[in-house]
Design a protein that fits this description.
Layout: H1 10-40, H2 46-71, H3 76-113
Helix pairs in contact: 1-2, 2-3
InterPro entries: Phasin (IPR018968), Phasin_subfam-2 (IPR010234)
Protein name: Phasin
Pfam families: Phasin_2
Length: 117
């Protein structure tokens, strides 16, 4: 039995792509502003915050790319494959991001206690 094709009009796919592009541009502006505001307010947690913002930006870029791939899926099986790949990569990335943030927190804690013992 073959999977039914997803009959999505080209105009709807184009509209979805434009919407994704507009949302990505808006998020880009947000991340630029957030990054600039962090550099103007240095503090103990600035590096960890900058790292967390970077990870969030990477995740958003991956989500926009994922949405673009889904817009072009031609059948349910392809859509499920795209979704599965995305989730797998996001779980992998989340684990790596948590390891890096945890390492940064531990390092910052060690630095803050130097000379106090």
């Amino acid at each position: 039995m073959t999977e039914p094709k997803l009959e999505v009009p080209a105009e709807l796919r184009e509209l979805a792509e434009r919407t994704i592009d507009q949302a990505e541009k808006a998020f880009g502006m947000f991340f630029d502003a957030a990054g600039k505001s962090m550099t103007s307010m240095p503090g103990a947690g600035t590096e960890i915050s900058r790292q967390a913002l970077s990870f969030t930006e990477q995740n958003m870029k991956a989500a926009f790319e994922h949405a673009r791939k889904l817009v072009h899926a031609t059948d349910l099986q392809e859509a499920m494959r795209i979704q599965s790949e995305f989730l797998r990569s996001q779980f992998t990335n989340a684990g790596e991001h948590m390891r890096q943030i945890t390492g940064g927190v531990i390092s910052a804690a060690k630095d803050s206690t130097k000379g106090k013992l």
